[in-house]
Amino acid sequence: MRRLTLILAAALALTCAAGMAEPKAESFNVAVALLTTGTNTLPEVRGYLDEVHVSVNDGASTGTVALAYVPLDGITAAVNIATNEVIASKVWRPAVDSTTVAGIANTNDPPARYGFAGETVRCIVTGSPTGKTWTVTLKLDR
């Protein structure tokens, strides 16, 4: 009986861990009103960034989309994740080089996913026609 209880407890723990690891999507809109630029933020992003999907509500407009995060210390300047020219919609999978303890890029290793522990992610759209709404969706893996 004791052995069965331990097996069931282990199975329950694995099930809970597997459920927490599911990917999730976080979306937010960037409205471009009277000017050809717009910005918006998504606070407290958590998880590893797998994919960014950007689209515009008319399905045809062009704009430059810059995605950055604000480090948790609140002092360091925003860090660019990716900047791309987008026509109608675009998907990208940004990655970052690891660094040495001295802060120098390790160019011989494979790039890693961005990991977030509560940072704010900011999106700035420039060069867009006015009156458009851009939707940014971050696919995150916990």
Write up what this structure looks like.
It contains one helix and seven strands; from the N terminus they run H-E-E-E-E-E-E-E. The radius of gyration is 19 Å and the shape is globular. The longest helix has 19 residues. By secondary structure, it is mostly beta strands. Helix content is about 15%, strand content about 55%. Strands 1, 2, 3, 4, 5, 6 and 7 form a seven-stranded antiparallel sheet that branches. The protein has a single domain, classed as Jelly Rolls (Sandwich), CATH 2.60.120.
Keywords:
Jelly Rolls; single chain
List the helices and strands and how they pair.
Layout: H1 2-20, E1 23-32, E2 37-56, E3 62-70, E4 79-87, E5 89-92, E6 114-126, E7 132-141
Antiparallel strand pairs: 1-7, 2-5, 2-6, 2-7, 3-4, 3-6
Order of helices and strands: HEEEEEEE
Runs in which pLDDT lies below 50 for 5 or more consecutive residues are: none
The quaternary organization reads as: single chain
Name of the CATH first level = Mainly Beta
Supply the CATH superfamily name: Galactose-binding domain-like
Portion of residues in beta strands equals over 45%
CATH architecture: Sandwich
Helical fraction equals 10-25%
What's the number of extended β-strand segments?
Answer: 7
Which radius of gyration do the C-alpha atoms yield? Answer: 19 Å
Structural class: mainly beta
Number of spatially distinct domains: 1
